Amino acid sequence: MPDHAEPPTPATPSGIADAAPGQPRRRPVDAVLFDFHGTLAQVEDPVAWVLAAAESCGAPLERTRATALADRLVMAGRAGGPLPSRVPPHLAEVWAERDLYAPAHRAAYVGLAATVDSGVDGLAEALYERLLVPEGWLPYADAAATLHALRAAKVPVAVVSNVGFDIRPLFAAWGLADLVDAFVLSYEVGRCKPDPAIFYRACGLLSVDPERALMVGDTPADAGAVRAGCAALVLPAAEAGQVNGLAAAVDLATADGR
């Protein structure tokens, strides 16, 4: 990606549905961009995360101990979890670059986990490895149906994520990879949401004008797509495995009768 991505030429108003006087016009949606974490999928329960990682280290834990340890690890900083309560100075640089470089992502989250004395050799690395496998995540209950409905309606889809590792193998394991036309990952393109450049890249890969694209996410960074000219739909992240309101994206993308 060039250092200064130029926005595509704005679309003309033709094709935008007329509205009653005083009412906003509905914008056609020719493509949908989805955030990953908190929108299409959620990380597994923290206790299950710790139990699985400890088991892989050959040190199975009792659930009571795993629960206490999970609380401390989440507070220290878990990928896919809330922001850490504090980033130690020695991790500040990799933390700042975690979504731009894969090595920085690993170093940041392994380093944060290592600040918690678990008593289990290799646990910090095992916790990170759990993030890289499909079992460490749960797609939302309506994710597959939403992607299938958009494919049936011939609406192209991109996944646009601030992330420091490749999420394509997760989608492949879930049988969803063929329903996504493009993956635009921050560590691959060198831009993070809400930078307009990452949304321009996604729209370019889908051959759609940003003004005819809808970004669906769960954070202000996702809503930053409006700076690139996209429409934005922000859905509060649901608990893992639940319905996340993704049908709204299908309704908006197919409202013109596709």
Give the structure's gist in a few sentences.
The protein has 11 helices and 7 strands. It is α/β, with parallel strands linked by helices. It folds into 2 domains: about 30-40 and about 140-255, HAD superfamily/HAD-like (Rossmann fold), CATH 3.40.50; about 45-135, no CATH class.
Question: What do these coordinates show?
Answer:
- 42% of the residues are buried.
- Helix 1 packs across helix 2, helix 4 (102-114) packs across helix 5 and helix 6 (143-152) runs parallel beside helix 11 (247-253).
- The radius of gyration is 20 Å and the shape is globular.
- The strands form two sheets. The protein has a five-stranded parallel beta sheet with strand order 5-4-1-6-7, with helices on both faces.
- The chain contains eleven helices and seven strands.
- With 258 residues, the chain is an alpha/beta fold.
- The chain starts with 30 loop residues before the first strand and ends in a 5-residue tail after the last helix.
- It folds into two domains: 31-40 and 140-253, Rossmann fold; 44-134, no CATH class.
- 37% of the residues lie in helices and 11% in strands.
Give the secondary structure arrangement, pairings included.
Blueprint: E1 31-34, E2 41-43, H1 46-56, H2 63-77, H3 92-96, H4 102-114, H5 123-131, E3 137-139, H6 143-152, E4 157-161, H7 168-173, E5 182-185, H8 186-189, H9 196-206, E6 213-217, H10 220-223, E7 231-234, H11 247-253
Parallel strand pairs: 1-4, 1-6, 4-5, 6-7
Antiparallel strand pairs: 2-3
